[in-house]
Structure prediction request, 768 residues.
Amino acid sequence: MAGSPFESLEKTLEKHIPPVELKDVRRILFGNDTKKLELSQCAVEAALERDFELQGCMFEAGQEQLRQPRIVRVGLIQNAIVLPTDAPVMEQITALHRRVGEVVEVAAMCGVNIVCFQEAWTMPFAFCTREKMPWTEFAESAEEGPTIRFCQELAKKYNMIVVSPILERDEVHGDTLWNTAVVVSNSGAVLGKTRKNHIPRVGDFNESTYYMEGNTGHQVFQTQFGKIAVNICYGRHHPLNWFMYSMNGAEIIFNPSATVGELSEPMWPIEARNAAIANHCFTCAINRVGTEHFKNEFTSADGKKAHQDLGYFYGSSYVAAPDGSRSPGLSRTRDGLLVAELDLNLTRQINDKWGFKMTGRYDMYAQELTKAVQDDFKPNIVKE
Amino acid sequence: MAGSPFESLEKTLEKHIPPVELKDVRRILFGNDTKKLELSQCAVEAALERDFELQGCMFEAGQEQLRQPRIVRVGLIQNAIVLPTDAPVMEQITALHRRVGEVVEVAAMCGVNIVCFQEAWTMPFAFCTREKMPWTEFAESAEEGPTIRFCQELAKKYNMIVVSPILERDEVHGDTLWNTAVVVSNSGAVLGKTRKNHIPRVGDFNESTYYMEGNTGHQVFQTQFGKIAVNICYGRHHPLNWFMYSMNGAEIIFNPSATVGELSEPMWPIEARNAAIANHCFTCAINRVGTEHFKNEFTSADGKKAHQDLGYFYGSSYVAAPDGSRSPGLSRTRDGLLVAELDLNLTRQINDKWGFKMTGRYDMYAQELTKAVQDDFKPNIVKE
Prediction:
């Protein structure tokens, strides 16, 4: 089922539901219609030739008197790995650089200002195996190394912010590994890095074998194109994580992920979108595609026989807006680039309309949460 | 559009999408299929005769060795008001008692253990008018008064927990008004009351004109049928509110609401469901149905002319489970009773599987949130 050829929810709805009813279905499921963003013919042709899906959409905001529209284009890239997982490490990295590089070139043709890749984009998502070699060899420094240099080149060449989620090797602090997103400014400078705050222990996601919970808190990066943050993968299940990025001012929160159909697909359309609504910000959920096969078999702690893959990464990357609307999802099966034009003025407009921050009573929660984490916490339970 | 006769999303999908594709559509949209709960013929006939929709579904859990299944049936009731809004106050209240009473009788036939009514169920949702009279006359004491007596009779008669969200008059504390849910034990005793923590200032929801933010914190009620909490209406937009009920042990969180199509319909399927996922608990979202007309016109602060209703309450009540699945929604247009059989063991099973509480790092958030509410809070922003 998870590996079925089912291409996308949106396309299936469009194919079968008559227009008059489709309007209500789309409104209830996806909120206000996003407009289609017209992309240049050369971009469309390049995507066709390079065999990836290209979609564009727009989120508009109301006109204001004192602020100009703040128009930003974000690019979300989802892709399958290129070489088999037992190819030489550097060849796998180089092949992924090449593949993602040709998608970024199309993003540049589409006027993208900020591009974000999927989680651990330079490698297979090999943590299911619990083996250390050769997977830890994919780890790189966030400040130097082939991948960061590659991203710096892209950033300068295309005047684009690049969010690059990698397996990080921190040589300065005991050669430890981290799951990290590096943010490269459009100047080419490394603006900073932010680490995955919540590490899963579910299904085949044995990542806690490799790295610990991030120690970079909830940094927000002020870029020329707005304030951005990165909530990596499993952090999307934690509403407090989204919330704290938002409290620090994030207008766009990227969620580079790697997750499979059997485990999480029905949760995928809910969580990042709820975060956009609850925090009056844009969220960008990115998942890889395809099935990754490993040479050595491994078990999944589910009573089933040993096997060589962890299931089907279902893509379906999307952008959600603070007004509850969302973009169509990219394909469940193909590499893709989703270009979304955002007017960042929408975030404050929806903040003023709905007022969740104003009505949030955060002082009460700070007190209650401080009590709740104490050893002697007594839940507030009323009995007859 | 909001007042369109569109009956329900689920029915439209079933009508048009071929079975082979419907399976994937349903899986992505609604998670694991819930089983249909067979209800007694006399209940089905009574619902037909009394002209309301009756639906039943089951959420199952895995077998355990040391715990028996903990099977509970909840009933969610959604309804339109019965009399015109300018009928005498006591006649309106009595008519609603009669209507809801006949639905509760069917709930009893269905073996419901805990029933929850919609927000401010004894009255029209008149706060759009900003008038004080006659609407404040609908307020009643939580401890005595016709509505609590009525609920106590139902509770004893049917051995059922009754969650009764009313406009409360607190005579002891300066005759103040509150938006309150009273929880009546199946013994007939008032177990307690819990007040709406977050009050909206959006659209026609001028409730802050009538009552303040609740002062009862995040109490959980230990009943014979599990630990329950009530997150009233606008509180569903606040992830911290759901979270704190869950931290206090809630296994089922009811969300009695009143909300209209134009404002919130695309957010409705997202928020309570996200809360069930994020907090490893069941959530029950209840909304009223129909359009309520008022004698005096009022404006909506949206540049439009004065008018006499605040739009269409779209029903669509549903139950969401911790595993990401959800029940079908009740109708957008009709009175209804949704009976859901829950195995409460699912909450701890999903907690053990996904581990959001274990990986939640609440000490970090307690510290960050405590800082974030200070006057001199400096957002954690990195600049080039």
Q: What stands out?
A: Chain B has one domain: 9-372.
